[in-house]
UniProtKB/TrEMBL annotation:
SUPFAM superfamilies: P-loop containing nucleoside triphosphate hydrolases, TPR-like. Residues 18-150 form the Novel STAND NTPase domain. The lineage of its organism: Bacteria, Bacillati, Actinomycetota, Actinomycetes, Streptosporangiales. Pfam families: nSTAND1, TPR_MalT. This is ATPase. It comes from Nonomuraea monospora. It comes from the Bacteria.
Length: 702
């Protein structure tokens, strides 16, 4: 089912879904610019093929970049403040640290030899330009390729305009049959009407049609779809009428963007009224969406929910919607320019607010379902699912935070997704939003209490134990005021977590004990009871009460097993490894640490992976696998930098880490240690995990 997410070195290029036509010169030109310049911006009107050309180029040059080609799509992002975050997230960067985003982004890119593609910058030019500048200054081997309807206005930027495709007649020596526009039309026509062939009979009207459409790929694709119902001549005739009306009596050529609008408008008119309405409504989604979401969000008395499936199919057939399927199911996406058109239409219909509200309701309810299901047997499924909906969740959050009277819903949505922020490596994003939502909701309430304990947990995950303690204390005070006993207990748990990080073991033990004892009906197994038990066992191990620690952890693992809960079990396995190191059961400890790592690979759990690698390094030192230990120590040093405060700033973890380093260095000798450490420092988290797991493709132990 799920593939491990994040930390892949090869990049994250989306696949190309349809055939690519022509553009040989443009691609060669772009390659040359890219070899000469560190920033190339591809410009051009909507629908001309900027994104597609860049994607083709990216696939072609992929092997030139040892650290991958990465693709960040900003098309549906509205908030300039989230540009950095969206790019970091596309790179799969650990999002734990509480430092400035650009700092850790630059640090992550560091010496990496990679290409970053930022698609669709025009609505956020300023923010993109600032970030690109910062990144290029900090990362000497980085190259950036942007697409935008306008340039980023940076002095060293190479701007490469994307012209429309060649149209018949541009090159008088060229055969009509090999012309790019004609070929694109023929390729898409073949997709609509399988027996379509280009021949002497239809080549002249096809060529004329492509000329009329100015060689704009999107316009050509939309026209080709009409072949299901009309002949080429009919399409041409209808378009010609339309264009002459638009251009006035003179019949002069239209500006290109007007040609495209006319082509889109024409497609729009040829849709059934219900399809048109759905097209407009679907513009509320960010990126792609699933059918269920469309059914819920877009249906009402005028568009019954049982009709939505057929209407979506109709829009796919008309090339308005793209369809994508992967292991997690089928998803749909409106092509950018068409989403904009739909949005304008939705605005004219006066339904923007209504759709945004439905969209928020859907994601709110999905988030609540995911929270309920989180501690059950389908945890990985829910992680993958909510990860796919990340862009939509962001849009829903933005809507709730911007709309008067809805900011409390933002609190609920955010708090439900606590596991995304804490367990799946998105602490920074969670914190950003939680702080905004809490500020927008200053009045004491149950919703606020939940958001406060979530915030505390998130801050602990970032190693900000003082902040975590403060948030949990506020939660506790407010929870008493509103009589929310559940939140009081969770506040106590979060205070305990923060105290553990601060190394105040007595306080941690008392608070975690309270959280466990008062969780009488096991109502909050996760993140209340089970993580509290794991954390208490860490306190006990540190205090030398190893038997008690182990038996607590065994119980916890048993509960996890019964419930199919994986994430806490990986946490418990990690803690058990620590307990077993203390009792000298090194082989068992290694098994536990590896089991923890194996599970964490399914989630984007940066923090948990780092902690498990810390333990693996200690085990390797104890079992004389010194080269492996030194490699892991190198990888840890490098990867903590972008993930957060090293060893979460916890004194006991730092002490263990330093002792492990000293030991390893002393026993290996300075030179050998340095070599292995530096080798390890080049590993990303996946590779370091492979070393710890002794995967066959991990570097050999020499
Ligand atoms: N050379 C090509 N071969 C095949 N299809 C193409 C080509 N160029 C563009 N297309 C198709 O045309 C449509 C519009 O292209 P694309 O989305 O790249 O335009 P864009 O310039 O990025 O538009 P926007 O400004 O809206 O982002 C897409 O469906 C794309 O796949
Ligand atoms: Mg584009």
């Amino acid at each position: 089912m799920a593939t491990p997410t994040g930390w892949r070195r090869e990049g994250n290029l989306p696949a190309e879904l349809t055939s690519f036509i022509g553009r040989t010169r443009l691609l060669a030109n772009l390659k040359r610019h890219l070899s000469e310049s560190r920033l190339v911006t591809v410009t051009g009107i909507g629908g001309v093929g900027k994104s597609r050309t860049v994607l083709r180029l990216a696939h072609q040059v992929r092997s030139h970049y040892p650290d991958g080609v990465w693709f960040a799509d900003l098309a549906r992002l509205q908030d300039a403040g989230m540009v950095k975050h969206t790019i970091a997230s596309a790179l799969g960067i650990a999002d734990q640290s509480s430092r400035a985003e650009s700092e850790s982004l630059s640090e992550w890119v560091g010496e990496r030899d990679m290409l970053l593609i930022i698609d669709t910058c025009e609505h956020l030019v300023q923010g993109c330009a600032e970030l690109v500048h910062e990144l290029l200054e900090a990362a000497p081997n980085l190259k950036v390729l942007a697409t935008s309807r306008q340039s980023l206005h940076l002095p060293y930027e190479h701007v490469v305009p994307v012209p429309p495709l060649q149209v018949p007649g541009d090159d008088p020596a060229e055969s009509l049959f090999t012309n790019e526009s004609v070929q694109l039309f023929a390729a898409r026509a073949g997709g609509s009407v399988p027996d379509f062939v280009l021949d002497e009979d239809n080549i002249a009207p096809v060529a004329e049609l492509c000329r009329r459409l100015d060689g704009i790929p999107l316009a050509i694709e939309l026209a080709a779809v009409r072949l299901r119902a009309l002949s080429v001549e009919q399409i041409l005739g209808l378009l010609a009428d339309r264009f002459s009306l638009l251009a006035g009596a003179s019949r002069t050529a239209l500006p290109r963007h007007q040609t495209l609008r006319a082509a889109i408008g024409w497609s729009h008119e040829l849709c059934e009224p219900a399809e048109r309405l759905l097209w407009a409504r679907l513009s509320v989604f960010a990126g792609d969406f699933e059918l269920d979401a469309a059914r819920f969000v877009c249906s009402d008395g005028r568009l019954p929910s049982e009709d939505i499936t057929d209407l979506v199919t109709g829009l796919v057939e008309k090339s308005i919607l793209l369809i994508r399927s992967n292991h997690a199911g089928v998803r749909y996406k409106l092509i950018d320019t068409l989403a904009e058109y739909g949005e304008e239409w939705l605005d004219k219909l006066g339904q923007k607010e209504q759709m945004a509200q439905r969209h928020l309701e859907y994601y709110l309810s999905l988030a609540q379902r995911s929270e309920d299901a989180w501690s059950g047997p389908r945890q990985i499924y829910w992680f993958v699912r909510m990860r796919q909906e990340h862009d939509n969740v962001r849009v829903a959050l933005e809507h709730a935070l911007r709309s008067p009277g809805k900011s409390a819903l933002a609190l609920t949505l955010l708090s439900s997704l606590w596991f995304m922020w804490v367990c799946c490596g998105f602490a920074r994003e969670g914190r950003l939003y939680l702080e905004r939502a809490l500020e927008a909701n200053p009045t004491v309430s149950k919703e606020r209490c939940k958001a406060l304990w979530v915030l505390s947990y998130v801050k602990s995950a970032q190693g900000d134990s003082a902040g975590a303690l403060a948030a949990a204390e506020t939660c506790s005070t407010e929870a008493v005021r509103v009589g929310d006993s559940r939140a009081v207990i969770l506040a106590s748990k979060m205070q305990g977590t923060a105290a553990l990080l601060q190394g105040d073991l007595q306080k941690a033990s008392a608070l975690l004990g309270v959280a466990i004892e008062f969780n009488t009906e096991n109502r909050e197994l996760n993140p209340g009871l089970l993580p509290a038990i794991v954390e208490l066992s860490i306190v006990l191990t540190t205090q030398g009460e190893l038997y008690e620690a182990e038996s607590l952890l065994q119980d916890c693992l048993q509960v996890c097993k019964e419930r199919g809960e994986l994430w806490v079990s990986s946490y418990a396995q990690w803690a058990l490894a620590g307990t077993r190191i203390a009792t000298g059961r090194i082989t068992d400890a290694l098994q536990n640490a590896r089991e923890a790592l194996r599970i964490k690979r399914h989630f984007h759990d940066t923090l948990g992976t780092l902690m498990a690698l810390e333990t693996a390094a200690r085990i390797f030192v104890l079992s004389d696998k010194l080269t492996l230990a030194a490699q892991l120590l190198g990888a840890l040093q490098q990867n903590w930098k972008t993930a957060g405060l090293p060893q979460l700033g916890a004194p006991w973890m730092t002490e263990e880490h330093n002792a492990c380093m000293r030991d390893c260095r002393r026993r290996m000798g300075e030179l050998a240690y340095k070599d292995a450490f530096e080798e390890g420092a080049r590993l990303d988290l996946d590779e370091a995990s492979a070393v710890a797991l002794d995967d066959p493709d991990a570097p050999d132990e020499s």
